[in-house]
Structures are given as C-alpha cells and as structure tokens.
Amino acid sequence: xxxxxxxxxxxxxLYPMGxxxxxxxxxxxxxxxxxxCALLLYRKGRKALKxxxxxxxxxxxxxxxxxxxxxxxxxLEYTFEADGKEVPDPYGKSFGxxxxxxxxxxxxxxxxxxxxxxxxxxxxKDRNPExxxxxTVIYHMHVRGFTKHPSSGVSQEDRxxxxxxxxxxxxxxxxxxxxxxxxxxxxFEELIPEKVPDGPSLSAESVSVPEKKxxxxxxxxxxxxxxxxxxxxxxxxxxxxxxxxxxCLHEAGMELIIELYFDGTQPxxxxxxxxxxxxxxxxxxxxxxxxxxxxxxxxxxxxLSRTKLFAxxxxxxxxxxxxxxxxxxxxxxxxxxxxLKGDEGxxxxxxxxxxxxxxxxxxxxxxxxxxxxxxxxxxxxxxKHNEANGEDGRDGTDYNQSWNCGAEGTTRKKxxxxxxxxxLKNAMLLLFLSQGTPLLMAGDEFGRTKKGNNNSxxxxxxxxxxxxxxxxxxxxxxxFTKYVIAFRKAHPVFHMEKEPALMDYRSVGxxxxxxxxxxxxxxxxxxxxxxxxxxxCGKYGIKPDGGEDDxxxxxxxxxxxxxxxxxxxxxxxxxxxxxxxxxxxxxSGFFEPGQEPILENPREVMVMARTIMVFIGKKDSAHNETTxxxx
Length: 631
Hints:
By secondary structure, the chain is α/β, with parallel strands linked by helices. It is 19% helix and 22% strand. The strands form six sheets. The chain has an eight-stranded parallel barrel with strand order 11-12-15-16-17-18-19-20. Strands 1, 2, 3, 6 and 7 form a five-stranded antiparallel β-sheet that branches. Strand 8 and strand 9 form a beta hairpin. Helix 8 packs across helix 9 and helix 11 runs parallel beside helix 13. InterPro entries: GH, GH13_cat_dom, Glyco_hydro_b, Ig-like_fold, Ig_E-set.
C-alpha cells in the first residue's frame, strides 16, 4: 500500500518554528523536551484523527524536533503530540475552527491550526505612517465591545469584529485620533473554568457565579501568531480581515497598535518571534507589551527600531535613547485624578505630569484605561460596583481616585450632572494639554459608563460594550473632546519634541514653560493649594509652516472656591483672549479661532471653582512693538 506522506529529517535548510509550506508538502518544527513527538492531522471540521506522523529522532536538535513531510495537506488541521499529550502549535497561524465566540466546544479539544495558509494578501502601496510620539493621539478599544452594541449602527454580521472597526474609521478620523490600540487580538480561550469562590463566609448559595464565565479581555497566554477567529466570525478569514484593517487604517493616515500579553513563562525567543511576526506579517505600527515581556531583547532588536513599543516601565533602557519606546502606566491617571477631585498636595504632581515627555523614552498618558473606572464613572462613583462579577466585591482595585460629585451613580439632579460634565471637560484639558502622548478609551468622549464596574474582565454584555446612543445624549462632551484634540494638534507648544526645560534656552526673554500662582511669576506649591497657572511661550513651538506658535496661559483651579489669577504680560501689541472656560454654562466651554472673547481685565481674572481656563495671546494688528514679558 502506497504511503500518503513521506517523511525526511535530512533537510539542511533552517526553517521557522511551526508549520511552513514548501513545494509538495510542509516542514514542521516543534520545541519540546519530550522523548517522543508527533504531528497529528485532522480533516477540517472532523473529530476523528486522520494521521499520526512521528518526528524522526534524526531531526532533533536540542529540544527542537524537525521534519519535512511530502503530501497533500489541503483542508487539514493539525496539533502536536509530546509524550502522548496533545498540544496546540504555539506558532500556529490560523485557528479558524474557533470562530464561534465562547463556544463550549473550545473546551472539548485542543485548538487545531490550519495546515495550509490563505492566498497572498494584496498590500498594494501600504506604508506605515510612522507618526512621531509627540504627534500621536491614541484611541483604545476592545475589538468585540467597540461595535457589538446594537446602537453601533454596524451590520449584524460585522458587530464585534475586525470588520466592524472599519465602519468607524470615518468617525475616528473626524474625532482626530491618529492611532488605534486594540486589546489582545491573538487567539485566546474565552471560557474561564467554572469555580465557586472560596473563603470562610462564602458559599455557592451566597455568591452568584455566571454559568459561563467569560475571559472577555484576553489577558492570558494566547496562540500568539494567529488573529482571533471569533473577531472575524464563522466562514470568515481572520488573517485577511486583520490585514485589511491595518491597510485601511494606514490609508486613512492612522496607525494600528496591538496589545500582546506575556505571563513570564514563554521563552524570550518566542516573545521576540511573536512581536516580529505581527510587525512583518500584519504591518502593525506598535505593540503594547502587557505583563512580563522580554523587554531587553525587544528594545535592542534592530528589526523593531521603528516600531512603537509600550511597556509599564523601561528602567535603565531609557539610556539607550530609543524614541520608539514609551512608558505606559497608571501614574498619570492616578495623580491627575487626585488633582481633579481637589486632593491636597497635588500641585507638584500636576506640574510634573503636564510637562513629562522624556527625550529618550516617551510617555503615554490616560485618565482611564481597561481596568478601572471609565471617565464618566470616575466622576459618578466613589466606590466600585462589581457585583455582577460574582466575586463578592473582592476583585478590582479599591484605589480609584474618583469622586461622585454628590450622588453615587445615576441621578437626576441637574446640579450634580452639570458638575460631572464640567469635571469631564477639565479632565479632557488635563489629558490633551499635557506633553506626553494622550490615550483616550473608546466611548469616553461621549460619557461611556460601565455602571461602576472597575474590573469588567468577565462582562461580555452592555457593561463592557460601547453604547453609541450616548453620542447623542452627550453630544456636547463629544464636541468638546474633538475640539480639544484639534486644538492640541494646531499648537505645538502642547506637544513638543522634548520635555520643556522650564528655561529660556533660546534667549527670547521668558522660559519655554513656566509655573505661576495666583500672582504672575510667583508659583505656590504648598500642600493646601489647589490652583496653578502654566505659561507657554509661543516662540518655542514651531508650526509645520515654520511660523511660531501663540502664547498661552492655562489657569487650573480645582479648589471648591474661586480664585483670582494675575496673568503675565504679553509682548506689546498682544492681548489675552479666552480659548477655554469649563465654567461656561451657556456655551460649549470652548471658543473657536476668531471667536475668542477678549479678556476685559488682562491684569487679573477670576477663575471659578473647579474650573480650567485657557487664554491665548492674540496680536493686535495696530501694534508690532514688543516689551519685556517679565514684570
């Protein structure tokens, strides 16, 4: 009887790990310390094993087993076997059988990868935008949650998929973001093993545990080389749809950044291979390294030297001066939230975070992220409300730095609702007028809420899905956010190439950025103070056309009482105008170019309680002379 497959181990060529298609068959490479390994073949969609092909001992180098197999692999799926135990290929490129989200069959068998890849993808003239960190505005989302809600307006078949994101590219473009960051897109297991919380006071009767608890976020070890099949859907090709997403974002002038999770058990070489794969095969522009990634290896890799790499801390790697690296952690969020709600002793943190933008390693800033409150919940809840998670409130941080503005959760009191909206506008200004790279969670621009749940890792429902109906309800917040983003882009003094030095290093008469108290040029940092002025010299901000930026003064008052600020002098022939006033009860809180009201008394202005005002120095065409700026 003629054998269907011919195996050889004398291949001299060095192949990558996993399965590689070659003329007439495949080459398999699998790392395992087992004493015997095999390739297991299945017909697509069938449960019964079709073929078991042993790796020859002669093809083993160290713990890597290799062999070339000649034969027909059309419509076949595979796994590996190590000492009798079936395991998935960690380098598998496509797991199409897992296209149904959170399906019970996923638990029943080991994930099987496709033996044959799909046809080549036409990238055309695709190029990575390579937007500098200082010019980047990130929009962070969960692939499924972004468009799964019926209010998204996306077709039923595309809701919660890579293709669903395509429908929102015009929206994101109008909002002004330049990069999309998506939570882990690699193939992971959604179903969490069912368990009853333990503890002396808990029982199955006292705690409500979801029948099928979902790992919604994906922060677990994944099959890291394959786009998640359930983010495409049944009968679809996730690899093609992910590539099309990257290509379409690039055509719109936007970047694609992905999260990859590392639990510390993966070999460092595997981590490097995985990041390189997404950059090379899928043209991603950046990777947010979550968990315990091999940072030294990745930071030093020349292949990734023009890829944005984000991590919680780069430590001594800062000395390498690699501007594609950026720190991505909660420090900005927690400290700026503390200032926002009026805590004592926060002015030093405000001054630090407003200017933080290290020359060697960038900084990603956010006011809300995956774990923790949304921005709306940040001003609506004093404490977490994670009852739906079934863990008796033991999950999720208790350190939210939030304030409910007078009522816990939903309320109809107009005074409280107005204060919450005002605080959100204050938060948007703090975020987008800081020097670091701003990140906005999808939906925060129109008041998305998770109903006080600060750890929605298992909530695949309206708690986690973005409710697009709020875009109409909170249209004013959306318009404010959109304008703040455009304002940041238009004025380079708010996103300089390097951190402000607080010095007059160009000998123009005043520092690039300076801090002020209620009196000009007299900063006050006592712990009881909650107000600070920041003066930006336009001569340090050069616009794309070579022209100088405007002068700005940002007055931040998070005290519950109003304070009078004395503004510094402008050059002769210039006057202060109001660009933003979050206490503007009759209008939008911002004034478009040419409509900024002139400040009636430029020597002193009253900034109301819990208010941020931004003043712009505009030239009077009748004067051209200048005078010293420091009194």
